[in-house]
Design a protein that fits this description.
Layout lengths: L1 H20 L13 E4 L5 H12 L3 E6 L6 H8 L4 E5 L5 H10 L7 E4 L19 H27 L5 E5 L16 H21 L5 E6 L17 H13 L9 E3 L9
Parallel strand pairs: 1-2, 1-4, 2-3, 4-5, 5-6, 6-7
Helix pairs in contact: 2-7, 4-5, 5-6
Amino acid sequence: MQNQNKKNIWIVLFLIISSWTINSQAVEFDNEQPTVLITGSNRNIGLEFVKQFSNKNWNVIATTRRPEDAKDLNDFAKNNKNIAVELLDVTNNEDISNLSAKYENQTIDILLNNAALTPRYMSAFKRINGVDEEKARESFEVNALGTMKVIQGFMNNVELSEKGKIIALSSKAGSFDERPKIPMMYGYAMSKAALNSMIYSLSFETKKKNIIAVVLSPGTVNTTPGMSLMGAIDVDESVSKMMAVIDGLTMEHNGLFLDYEDGRTIDW
């Protein structure tokens, strides 16, 4: 009986893993519709982007580190055939290479870099002596280098679009001008400032490729259930307004840091 139970467990594990690895072929989208690739699609802002783009009849490549655990995303995707749920850890070079190869010939009209590592509420307010070096390093790996590597992996796909856009979600914490004037979120703020710098540098390349690259602030968003931050907005409001800003982008916005509310320029 014990051996049979172990066998059953292995069968279940095999089926779960297989469901994410056997299908090595890219989903065949309706190429009459535009396509967006979204990182960090399993919850909060990323998941809401998936829903809103899908509802607008976009093809959506929704990526997440653990597809097998992304219940809400999978449930939504089951009822919307224009969504492909894919494995992608932005810090994992093999993940990026595999997904890039899988969608080698797929035009990507918007590359939406949403995946990020944000600090826990209490750790955000630690002073300089309390900054965790490993967490700070991880913030750079995800928020700055991870985004850079995703762009490297899918730049050719964006070039296939006639109106390609590269969006990186940042934070006013990374702005010297508009950040809270208190000592907080050291690692996170540094990583977002690095992200901003990378996109600004990228914009000199994208201009020559007729691609718009911008940094976008989602505002202060209430992403923690049961916790209401003063002045925070709901996820759906943030994403709806960002969608409007993204839709209205022109080459004149290339290389800018924009606010979700009305697309105004945020000073670096």
